[in-house]
Amino acid sequence: MSATNTVNYFEIGAADAEGARAFYGGLFGWDFAAANPGGYAAIGGNAGGLWDTSVSGAGSWAVFYVEVADIRVTLEQATAAGAATVLPLVDNGVILFAHLADPAGNRFGVWQRKLVG
Question: What's the predicted TM-score (pTM) here?
Fold first, then answer.
């Protein structure tokens, strides 16, 4: 089975990151890594992540990610089909990712592995 077009990651954005840790940790028993300088903490090893949005003012959200083969083509297809860009394409050195909103306003993410070598 191809890894592309598969939901395989999630993130939660919370202005109250400690409250989100307490809620999700208590409810699901999730373990959170220490947050990096950007306010990002991995959940369950590498199953997902929690963003502390209190600094950026990005609000609260939960988003699932779909891994795609070509993120630029996917972004073009998504916007042509009525999606709106919420977070433009980001290259974090390891992956490329972006957040979109579907025509009904539901937020989701797409990501692509960067080629190593």
Answer: 0.82
- Tell me the one-letter amino acid at 32: F
Closest CA relative to residue 111, chosen from 36, 9, 12:
9
In angstroms, the CA 117 to CA 43 distance is 28
Tell me the β-bridge partners of 4.
none
CB 107 within 8 A of CB 99: yes
Q: Are 111 and 71 in contact (CB under 8 A)?
A: yes
Two structure tokens written together for 17: 């990151």
- CB under 8 A, 24+ apart: contacts of 34-37: none
- Looking at residue 104, its pLDDT comes to 86
* 48, amino acid identity: G
Cα 80 to Cα 69: distance, rounded to the nearest angstrom: 18
Residue 25 CB neighbour total at 10 angstroms: 14
Q: Which residues contact 26 (CB under 8 A, 6 or more apart)?
A: none
Residues of the chain where predicted confidence (pLDDT) is lower than 50 = 1
